[in-house]
Amino acid sequence: MGKCLNLLSLVAPKRSGRILLSLLLKPRPKPIKTNMLNFLAEAANFSFEEHGETYAGYHWEGTGPSILLLHGWESNASRWRPLIKKLRQENYNIYAMDAPGHGNSTGTEFTPIKFAEAAHHIITEAKIEILLGHSAGGFASLYYLSSIPNKLKCCVILAPTYSMEDVFTGMKSILGLSTRAISNLRSHFIQVYDVIPKEFNSANFVKDLTLPSLLVHDEEDRTLPVAGSDMIAKTWKNCTYKRTAGYGHRLRDKAVDDMIIDFLRTVI
Predict the structure, then answer these.
(1) Computed from CA positions of residues 77, 81, 87, 88, in that sequence, does the dihedral angle turn out positive or negative?
(2) H helices within 90-130, ranges in order?
(3) 132 inside domain
(4) What is the pLDDT of residue 268?
(5) Which of 166, 148, 156 is nearest to 236 (CA)?
(6) For the chain, N or C: smaller number of CB within 10 Å?
(7) For the chain, how many structural domains are there in total?
C-alpha cells in the first residue's frame, strides 16, 4: 500500500492527502470479545446522539465522586475492567464510553476533537468530577480540558499521544510512506482543521491548566514514546508525573491502578 500511496503523492498530491487523512482517522473494525461483552453487560448500558452518530455508554452506579473513563485507539470501554473493579470497591460513580468508530459506538472516523465533544455530553449530564483517559483517549481528554469549559475537579492521563505530528510520523513508519506523501497529508490536515499539526499538541493543551492531575507514562512504551509526556510534565502546573518501567503502553497493571486510586484519595 505504501508504494501506491507514494506514487499517488507524486501525480495527485491533493487526492493523496485526502486518502491518507481518511486512512489515518479510520480505526480497523474489531469485534468485542464475549468476555468483554459480558463485563459491559454488568453496567447500565445507555446511548446518546452526537455528530450524527450513536455513542455507547456504560454506568456502574456508586455514591462517591463521578468519573468518566476514555479508552485509546482501537480499544473499547471494557479495557478498564481491572480499574473499574477497584473503583467500585471505593464506591465511585463510574461512567465509560466507546469512542467514535470503536466498540458499540457507530461511525468510521475518530478524531480527538470528536471524542472530546462526545464526552462532553456525559460530563455535563452526569456531572462528572474526574476525567481519566488513556493514549488517544488521554489526548482527547487534554484537548477537552483546554478547549471546552467544564467543572472537573481533577484528571488522570495515561500514556497520551503528544501531537498529531507524532501520529504522522508513526503512520510514515508503518506504511513506508515518503516525505512527500506525509507533506500532502499535513497540507490536507491543515486545510480541514485549520491547525498546524505540530502545534496541536498536549504540551500546548496543558499550559494553562491548574487542576490537580496525575500523568503516568512507561519508559518501555513502544507505541507512544515517554519523551512526549516528559515535555507535557514540564509545562503542566499542579501535575504529579509518574514515570514507570515494565508496564508498556497499555499500563494494565495492579501497581498503576493502585497509583490512580491513591492519587484520587488525595484530591477528592
Answers:
(1) positive
(2) 112-125
(3) yes
(4) 86
(5) 156
(6) N
(7) 1
Band of the pLDDT at 31, cuts 50, 70, 90? confident
Domain contains 10: no
Is the pLDDT confidence value at 28 over 90?
no
Q: Whole domain around residue 140: which residue ranges?
A: 42-162+201-267
In the structure grid, which three cell numbers stand for residue 34, read together?
Answer: 464475549
The DSSP secondary structure of 127-139, one letter per residue, reads T--EEEEETHHHH
pLDDT of residue 30: 85
Residue 2 has pLDDT above 90, yes or no: no
Q: Which pTM was predicted?
A: 0.95
Rounded Cα distance, 158 and 179, in Å: 30
Which residues does 223 contact at the CB level (< 8 Å), separation at least 6? 135, 159, 249
* DSSP 8-state code for residue 201: B
**Which residues are registered as beta bridge partners of 157?**
133, 215
What pLDDT, on a 0 to 100 scale, did the predictor assign at position 220? 96
Provide the grid cell at 38.
459480558
Q: Domain with 57 in it: what CATH number?
A: 3.40.50.1820
- Is 228 inside a domain boundary? yes
Alpha-carbon distance values, 145 to 10, 116, 168 (Å): 39, 9, 23
Which of 13-17, 31-35, 166-170 has the highest average model confidence (pLDDT)? 13-17
19: in domain? no
For residue range 210-237, what is the model confidence (pLDDT) as tens digits? Answer: 999 999 999 999 999 999 999 999 999 9
Average of per-residue pLDDT across 38-60: 97
Q: How many residues does the chain have?
A: 268
